[in-house]
Amino acid sequence: MQIILASVLTETTPLGVPLKAASNVSFLKKKGFKDVELVSVLHEDAAQNADTAELLVKEIQKHINGSKQTAVFITYTTKTIKFVIKAAELVKKQQNFAPVLICFGADNQEQIQHCKGYEVFDYVITGEPEVSSAELLQNLRGTQKTVFITGKPANPEDLPSPWLDGTLDPVDYNGAVWELSRGCGQKCPFCANHKERISLPLSRLEKELELFAKKKVPEVFVEDKVFNADKERALKLLSLMQKKLPDAHFQFKIDLNLMDKQLVRAFCALSCSLQINLISSNPTVLKNCGISFDKKQFAHKIRMLNDNELIFGFNLIYGLPGDTYPSFRETLDYALSLYPNHLEIHKLSLIPGTKLSADIEKTGIRAESEPPFHIQVSPTFSELDLLKAENLAFACTVFYTAGRAVPWFLSVIHPLKIKPSQFFSDFAEWLRCNNCAKSTGFDPFRQPHTEIEKIQLLFLELKYEEKRLSFAFPVVKDVVCLNGALSRLFAEGEETTLRTMYHPDDILGGSAFDVTAFAEEACAEPCTVRVFNNNGSPDFQII
Known about the structure:
The chain contains 22 helices and 19 strands. The N and C termini lie far apart (68 Å).
């Protein structure tokens, strides 16, 4: 029997690693299946050359051996399900081969049943696929209608590593997604992943770190819903990372409530960033979701991260029960007051199988019937307000996150005497007028940072003119451009030469944080500045 596991990749970063499919490949090989192949296509390539589904089918066809019975597994996410179903339909129409089609990727049966056309699959495996895939292949046959199989959790000791057995090579992805655990015990009402948390063996994880070191992996995305759920295990792993892979950058998802000084010190020993679920700062909204929140305690914990110069970002969700456009703006203002490096802002998805989806009649929320199941309207969030929130979130993503604005944002908008949410609301309108709104397909992360910086400066100059503060804009420009040059040196290793109105020592020394006072008191000293890497450290020189 020939077995093909196919995926559509939507990310060009290491996050695009087809880990779920690869883990299934590794498990099937371990169970004695010989002819097992992993294939994938990049959605970005399809957008340039052909339809994504057609590209996936062509890739599958390349690997088909017509002399054998064939099983084609296709994994899906909410981003790829439409491509996956269309690809399956195209495969069914082929005259030269008739594989058994198996889909996996859903947490529960309801999720896939909301997708039109899912019946094209012979089998759908929900939950963890490895054990049930192996059992299915022992007695595989075609079906008259789709058969649903609830995946059986595997013993973590029995799960082989797709990195260690060569199914995946981190060199191919310029990084790795590193699975440490499965499941999540937090039971958030908007999440379908309520399975019991299981941890993969430390012995396996140590060997994977050694492989990553051998391959000189530069970036590792840690796949663990709450990395610090078990403090002692987290400390052991952080020590291993620092020992085995000290030069890589790690990205973690953490629970801020579980952070303490000991964990902070351990994170500080690594190059890393922490992703934190803030969700909302509105007590009523969070209470409706069964989440307790203490603003002062949260801010205290964040201050501990800032004091130790740890990089962190927040996840926010708008549209939750009781949320409003004004309360979302308040959440945005609160989040930005804490100096996050970046924000990931999501419109609520009522995913089938979640508590919020089950309570849809009680909450009065209406949502899309197909992936991504986004909220359409609620008793407190109108369609118009949801559109305004979407535009506000996009404006923040462009200016703040893609624009790498954290070092200077609050000090630069302070003279304008407006809240961040109002600033981004104005910026959203500016983006619309300049054909850069989300609806145009503009993607800030596909632009060079220098282009985003130009957009920032154009808008800031406009705002400073509106407030009759044009005299201070040269200070703003120097602050933005010098910090931007430093960010490109860190992120891309890119050297920059630029002209400044003031000496860089003055701009970067802290006194320029009070923009208007600096503009009134400092002496201009036009310079040509080279920002460069000096033996591993950022440096600049006047040329």
